[in-house]
């Protein structure tokens, strides 16, 4: 559904992003369901995939917005595919939001995904982008479409009939001609009415930024593509260089650097797998800081005991029953008590 130029149709519903509206004023930004896009899936309407500006009675498609939404949407399909590849067939789509800035994918899974697996999921999507796969779409009867091996559909979703099939790397006609072919389980095929890029290379890059639980057995992943993905990857690289640089530091310089890096890494929009790596490296450095602090404390303790013992001996040889002395151990309370 990549329209170029004017389009005439009847508006069947108007969506504000949170509710359906009875109407919209000129220049309001709303999502609409058109009679001509009957295969539009409601779930993607929620995702505001179709975004228009209503001007007078004429619909102007916001192509600028669509330009950024399309790669995010196609990457959502690749992410859905990669999740099944890595986690197995029990992963089902529970929702999806695609906006120009990012994508969010909700899915069924009982526990947090290991960062290593998140990295694997991310690289499957990036491999598909690098493979420059064509994105195909075609209408088919619902019964025909459902026979395609490996087809991803949202459980409980009511699909129109005929329905639009979107496949990545293989023509929909080929899938329909031999639906049970085992080979199809290794490509992304979905029932979908949304906007897509024509080739996966247009997404440029994919960065999986976060993975977290939102309800019992339901988790979500947020991710970015294109320039936002490049930015996330560059930011991760520059933080990694700083972390590696910090490992050559010592003492209070190291302590300060680790504290600053920790809060910056925690708050950074960088790939989740890389964030986990950096946290591991930082915790090694935190241990180094702790060990150094402990060593200083032990040395202070020894120093305090040594000075006190010497002073006590001097006092005893002078015939005094007590003595007061200054021991230079800074603010080390433990050493002072000793
Ligand atoms: Zn879709």
UniProtKB/TrEMBL annotation:
Q: What is the lineage of its organism?
A: Eukaryota, Viridiplantae, Streptophyta, Embryophyta, Tracheophyta
**Family recorded in the similarity comment:** Belongs to the class-II aminoacyl-tRNA synthetase family.
According to its UniProt record, the EC number is 6.1.1.7
Record keywords: Aminoacyl-tRNA synthetase, ATP-binding, Coiled coil, Ligase, Nucleotide-binding, Protein biosynthesis, RNA-binding, tRNA-binding
Q: Which PROSITE patterns match?
A: AA_TRNA_LIGASE_II_ALA
Q: Please give the name of this protein.
A: alanine--tRNA ligase
Q: Which InterPro entries match?
A: Ala-tRNA-synth_IIc_core, Ala-tRNA_ligase, ALA1_helical, Thr/Ala-tRNA-synth_IIc_edit, tRNA_SAD
In its UniProt entry, the species of origin is given as Erythroxylum novogranatense
Which Gene Ontology BP annotations are present? alanyl-tRNA aminoacylation
């Amino acid at each position: 559904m990549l329209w170029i130029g004017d389009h005439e149709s009847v508006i069947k519903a108007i969506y504000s992003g949170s509710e359906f509206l009875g109407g919209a004023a000129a220049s309001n930004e709303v999502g609409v369901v058109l009679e001509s896009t009957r295969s539009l899936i409601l779930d993607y309407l929620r995702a505001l995939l179709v975004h228009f500006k209503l001007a007078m009675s004429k619909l102007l498609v916001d192509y600028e917005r669509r330009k950024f939404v399309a790669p995010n949407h196609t990457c959502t399909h690749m992410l859905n595919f990669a999740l099944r590849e890595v986690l197995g067939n029990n992963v089902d789509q529970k929702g999806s939001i695609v906006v120009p800035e990012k994508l969010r994918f909700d899915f069924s899974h009982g526990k947090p995904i290991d960062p290593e697996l998140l990295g694997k999921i991310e690289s499957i999507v990036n491999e598909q982008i690098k493979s420059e796969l064509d994105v195909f779409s075609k209408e088919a009867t619902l019964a025909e479409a459902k026979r395609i091996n490996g087809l991803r559909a949202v459980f409980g979703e009511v699909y129109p009939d005929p329905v639009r099939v979107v496949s990545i790397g293989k023509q929909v006609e080929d899938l329909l001609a031999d639906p049970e072919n085992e080979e199809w389980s290794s490509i992304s095929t979905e029932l979908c009415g949304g906007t897509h890029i024509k080739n996966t290379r247009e997404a440029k890059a994919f960065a999986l930024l976060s993975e977290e639980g939102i309800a019992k057995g339901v988790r979500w992943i947020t991710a970015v593509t294109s320039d936002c993905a490049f930015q996330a990857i560059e930011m991760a690289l520059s933080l990694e260089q700083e972390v590696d640089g910090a490992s050559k530091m010592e003492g209070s310089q190291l302590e300060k650097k680790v504290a600053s890096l920790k809060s910056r890494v925690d708050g950074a929009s960088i790939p989740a797998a890389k964030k986990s790596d950096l946290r591991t490296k930082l915790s090694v450095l935190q241990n180094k800081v702790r060990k150094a602090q402990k060593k200083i404390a032990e040395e202070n303790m020894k120093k305090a005991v040594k000075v006190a013992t010497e002073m006590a001996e001097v006092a005893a040889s002078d015939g005094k029953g007590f003595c007061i002395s200054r021991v230079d151990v800074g603010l080390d309370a433990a050493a002072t008590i000793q």
